[in-house]
Amino acid sequence: MAEANFMHQFINAGETAISNLLLAHFHELGLTNDEFLLYLQLESFHSGGNDFPDMTVVAERLHLATSQVYQMLHRLIQKKVLEIQTSQDKSGRSQDHYDFSLLYDKLATLSLQQTQQVATAKKDDSRQKLFEAIEAEFGRPLSPIELETIGAWLDEDHYQPEVIELALREAVLNQAYSLKYMDRILLSWERKHLTTKQQIQQEKQKRTQRDSNAKQPANTTNNGPQIPMYNWADPDEQSGSKE
User: Fold this and answer.
1) pTM for this one?
2) CB 109 within 8 A of CB 28
3) Residue 111 to residue 105: CA distance in whole angstroms
4) How far is residue 134's CA from residue 81's CA, in Å, rounded to a whole number?
5) Where do the H-state alpha helices sit in the chain?
6) Are the beta carbons of 104 and 90 closer than 8 angstroms?
7) What digits encode the pLDDT tens for the residues 3-18?
8) How, if at all, do strands 83-88 and 94-99 pair?
């Protein structure tokens, strides 16, 4: 009987839904533990249909003096996370209620900033890896001018790092260890509207197949697979050798 009575009370008490995002970041929004607990209590009353509870009742729940609760409310208003709004009910009577919209706005801004920080960190990491890959293939450190050139590819021309890495690979295959050569490759792809790694690889496969079919002699001795190369920096050149 007691258990059934408890379950009845438990269900009728309702629930208060709190975002895990807010739970994880309320300190970063400037709330202390006590202030966040007050927020939870006010949300609990709101869930029960009371948007402006008696602070004496709230204070009893928190085991604090009513004056302390009012001080916390004042601090929340000063921190611009809480407002006391006034609206009219269906009968035209004015009613006050606590509004935490400013808190949620701050949370949204914080979330956006953190997302941007992660994206910036990934961008910086991919940029550094690209610098290191080019230096490794060239066998020497990049000069300030070369670093500036690569930065322009990324920031002004908006080439994807993986596309620049493909251009590096093509340059190495053609034994041309220079950014000027890579730039000609990148411009060649841009003119052909090849802007992603997948598009470039598909175009290479098509060209390899066409070249293979065009160069098939009538009678050949199978001495191993042919590996055709295409000089993107000089599309008119038909062989992989460089003068």
Assistant:
1) 0.63
2) no
3) 10
4) 49
5) 2-12, 20-25, 33-47, 55-62, 66-78, 101-138, 144-155, 161-173, 179-191, 197-214
6) no
7) 777 766 766 777 888 9
8) antiparallel
